[in-house]
Each structure stands twice: as structure tokens, then as C-alpha cells.
Amino acid sequence: MSFEQVIQLLQNIDKKLDILINHNNTNNNIINKIISIREKDNYHTYAESNYIKKCLEGKGHTADFKLFKNIHLQSGYEYPIKIINRKILSYYNGVEWIDNDIIDVCKIILNNIQNAYMKENVFENSSKNPQKFIENQKHILAINDVKYIKKFSTLLYKFFKN
Question: Vertex 81, ends 76 and 82: CA angle to 5°?
Fold first, then answer.
């Protein structure tokens, strides 16, 4: 093999390596454009405090689902959930895609929503209307109810199956 052939071979390898590096960077950019459903304490990073309060005052699974959509379905981001079948979803946890039961995924999402609501529903902010604070707390606690989780899972499934 001549010196020119070795140089040509090395240049071809370098070009292929550049293609692989660019392809890998493109894939990493896609992954970075998904907001993990596990980011419990960062809902305030993605939604304004007033919007979270407005959803809390809606006191229902539809308002909670609006908050989920507002945070996770922002323009430029990929959906953090993929439907496998009626009972199994694949969700992005910040590192990888995980297949899990739809109810378990809804529990994660609703726990995140609960945490966001708890940060907003502070008694000091409701001192003029303590009844509002109590009603909000009742809703926050009701989010853990089995029937509530099932209703939320139905909304989630219907949205992502389309």
C-alpha cells in the first residue's frame, strides 16, 4: 500500500467518523427536547405560577390534564409518552424510555402535579380567603384517589392514541 493510499484511507475513515458524530449529536438533541415526566420539582421551570394556580382552581382532572399538556407538550418538544397498547405506555424518564402500566405513569404525572399545587397553595397566600385554601387542599389530596387516577388515565390515553 502506497503512502497516498494510506492517506486516502485515513481521510475516508475521518469522513465516516464525522458522519457518525453528527448523527449522534442529532439524536442527543432530540432526546434533550423531551421534558421528562420525572422532573417533579421543575414544573415551575416550564409553567408560570399563575397558570398553575389557575389549573388548581379548576379542581378537576381536565384542569390537571391541561397543566400536564402545558408543561410537556410545549412547541419544539417531543411528547414524553408513547402508547404501546390500552394498558401499557412508554414514557421518557430523563435518561431512557421505560414501558410501564398506564396507571403507574398517571401516578407519576399526578404526583408531579400535586407537588406543583402544594408549592402554590400556601396558607399565607390565602389568608384573606381560608376557605379557598381548604378547598384547594381537598382537591390536592383527591388527586391520589383511584377513581381520579383512572379518569386521568382515560384522558391521557385518548390524547396520545390520536
Answer: 110
